[in-house]
């Protein structure tokens, strides 16, 4: 929560309590905390923790009559990087049961969860994560809580449909809803369910809240304590379209004839200094080429024959079903790349990070279309950031055929609890077929390789280097039928031959 006093940000007293100086505060800050009520207000510094709504907000409907189990949330983003320390929601004595707070990533993964202490106090209730969760600027997340016996707070027609609420770097875009448990994504009647976060920015910000006209008649709390509603920004014009873009020529040094040079910082990612990008981050013009740009936030490709090259993308690159024949070449993709039901995508010579524990490369038929043809070559997995509750794969493939994975460096480094596999071919969404995994460095993870049931013959696994700091084993196959159809020429890093999936 972030109470406002003539737009000067102040914190709830329970977030500022000091038991024995700063040292004691740092210890207390990591413990679960559940408090209700507003208390007195005090100013805070530019880097103090804060949220979206005021402590003194009083929902027009504090508790609905419906006792059905629901999960309620808020979709939000921050203009600056930082950490989410806690989940908050407004409750009354009618909102009973074991409440669980959750933070969901931009690709739908659960980043962290925490249980609230049972209380009948009316007001804001807070539960802190054991470990704060890093979030990236300009990326939308969902903070939610589960109300097992319903009777939650609500304000209809107040959030969504172009109406947003902003406090400092945080913006709430819409309330989200799900009957039962899971990730809430539905929007019902543009309702606000009074869910919030405790956010601490990475560094001080000079941004201040600016009063703007209120949206069309909604029931709101007292004007002096409510953050300012704003309207959604207008999308910028897409960059100039080009028909049938030409694939970039790979540098000679990175792919000599008959061999594969290990990808690293010298032969992947962008070169030079990309300039600022002013086009739309939701690309719908066929043949668009984005070259030599820095793109802030998630970039969505929703048109065929789009090329992204020699550029930096600060978060996820998402290729949707409409983005057939996409080419991503020599890009620094700090949030990774996801291909969802798009045919013939190519990702090459790209430095791939990940967003809050999400996979660096994710190829899936989420949209119900079995993907035909994806090429992943000469890429470097680097700069991984794990989050509590993550289940990370360097590459996850499900619901795809004819996938070529060649000359990539999937070196995950020292094992972390959140690691699953460097490469995971899964049997969900129709499984996979025609997979070729050739001349890669497949190192680290709980397993180097995890293989589900192939839908039409197992994978071909040749010429790979395996091992590294894995936790359980080099390979885990779901059954004998899930083992690779071909396993030849694979070695440990020292050159000793190995059959990865015996």
Please give a structural write-up:
- The protein has 502 residues and is mainly β.
- It folds into 2 domains: 4-207, PHR domain (Jelly Rolls, Sandwich); 252-492, Pectate Lyase C-like.
- Helix content is 2%, strand content 39%.
- It is built from 2 helices and 38 strands.
- The protein has helices at 13-16, 21-28, and strands at 4-5, 8-11, 42-43, 70-78, 82-91, 100-104, 110-115, 123-135, 141-147, 163-167, 170-179, 195-201, 228-231, 275-276, 282-283, 289-291, 293-295, 299-301, 307-313, 317-319, 327-333, 337-340, 345-348, 351-352, 361-364, 371-377, 380-381, 392-398, 400-406, 409-411, 419-425, 432-433, 436-438, 441-451, 460-462, 465-477, 486-488, 491-492.
- Strands 14, 16, 17, 19, 21, 23, 24, 26, 27, 29, 32, 33, 35 and 37 form a 14-stranded parallel beta sheet that branches.
- It is globular.
- The chain starts with a strand and ends in a 10-residue tail after the last strand.
Give the secondary structure arrangement, pairings included:
Blueprint: E1 4-5, E2 8-11, H1 13-16, H2 21-28, E3 42-43, E4 70-78, E5 82-91, E6 100-104, E7 110-115, E8 123-135, E9 141-147, E10 163-167, E11 170-179, E12 195-201, E13 228-231, E14 275-276, E15 282-283, E16 289-291, E17 293-295, E18 299-301, E19 307-313, E20 317-319, E21 327-333, E22 337-340, E23 345-348, E24 351-352, E25 361-364, E26 371-377, E27 380-381, E28 392-398, E29 400-406, E30 409-411, E31 419-425, E32 432-433, E33 436-438, E34 441-451, E35 460-462, E36 465-477, E37 486-488, E38 491-492
Parallel strand pairs: 14-17, 15-18, 16-19, 17-19, 18-20, 19-21, 20-22, 21-23, 21-24, 22-25, 23-26, 24-27, 25-28, 26-29, 28-31, 29-32, 29-33, 30-34, 31-34, 33-35, 34-36, 35-37, 36-38
Antiparallel strand pairs: 1-2, 2-3, 4-9, 4-11, 5-8, 5-12, 6-7, 6-9, 10-11, 10-13
